[in-house]
């Protein structure tokens, strides 16, 4: 039995608690549910009480001797961060492409010449399950070190049945073996496999008829994602894939309007996607359609920075009523990072989110983007005891001192892991 944990005298406790259910938009993204001199009681993996230190002393003083007591004077505490978009399971790495891009090659040129996603696909196909587990474990450890306690992960470096299933099974194994909660997404349509080039519709048929049913039957994924982009999958092909997944119980997500405006945001709204990702080039109509449909914009400012592109219009999206989440996009090509704190900084610097909006985007709204808002994303009684203690005294300072990992301690389901 692990001891209860009693965190007391938290200078600023950002609970992110709210009466409102569902993704937060507009002003609601600034409501952090702050408590001064706050306190938390964690027990049995769950948050048992949240309030001021005085309130919890009234409730728990008699049980104080049972608990590990943490004095958080001078620190802030937030929910464990949630990363709702990663490609964390992959083989190998692509540092040579980084160099090539700095020498002038573009992301799509490298991919069309057989590098990029195709290179990682080859390395992932070659890797054994054990090798993938070992490499992914290191990345998940790094996520924890950066305060992230829930991570979505996509397949998509297989693009054949065998390797797509291998990636999803690795996630399933790590869900049991690693402290982090992993949420699986099938992304068989991450690129067009070289042997299907020019026959994209045939691959779409194959994916719909032979891959999706097995993924759904084996319950290997909750979400179904597609790279809707010029030169990859058209909006029509993407729609077919996402609708087919819906029939099998897989919720749509979509990589949309990353490199060129392509109607991806509009499609996300049309198919009722839970989130649309990237959106660097989303149109005004697409943004309005997402605000109306309640589709979450999952924005990836580290990817934009890494590709040296203008970040998505996060400020405009929030002002237009779109609920925004943020994510690392952790992958070996366009965003090889596990640092959600850096992504929070970049959300402020390059997309003009306020520090409060950025924290909401990395916690509660991120949880909504993977349908986990009933379990994580805010510090409320009954939710998982996923908690981060930071070496800063205010949430503004967390966003202001940028590029630094301010994590002091992390509890996952009430157990200290960092
Ligand atoms: O989200 N845009 C497509 N997929 C990934 C990149 C994957 C890769 O380069 O390996 C992304 O950025
Ligand atoms: Fe991605």
TrEMBL record:
Fe(3+) binds at residues 85, 87, 255, 329. Gene3D superfamilies: Metal-dependent hydrolases, Urease, subunit C, domain 1. Its EC number is 3.5.2.7. It holds the Pfam family Amidohydro_1. Catalyzes the hydrolytic cleavage of the carbon-nitrogen bond in imidazolone-5-propanoate to yield N-formimidoyl-L-glutamate. It is the third step in the universal histidine degradation pathway. This is Imidazolonepropionase. Signal peptide: none annotated. Residues 76-417 form the Amidohydrolase-related domain. Its cofactor is Zn(2+); Fe(3+). GO terms for molecular function: imidazolonepropionase activity. Pathway: Amino-acid degradation; L-histidine degradation into L-glutamate; N-formimidoyl-L-glutamate from L-histidine: step 3/3. Keywords: Cytoplasm, Histidine metabolism, Hydrolase, Iron, Metal-binding, Zinc. The keyword Iron applies. Its main location: cytoplasm. The keyword Hydrolase applies. Zn(2+) binds at residues 85, 87, 255, 329. It comes from Cytobacillus citreus. The gene is hutI. HAMAP family: HutI.
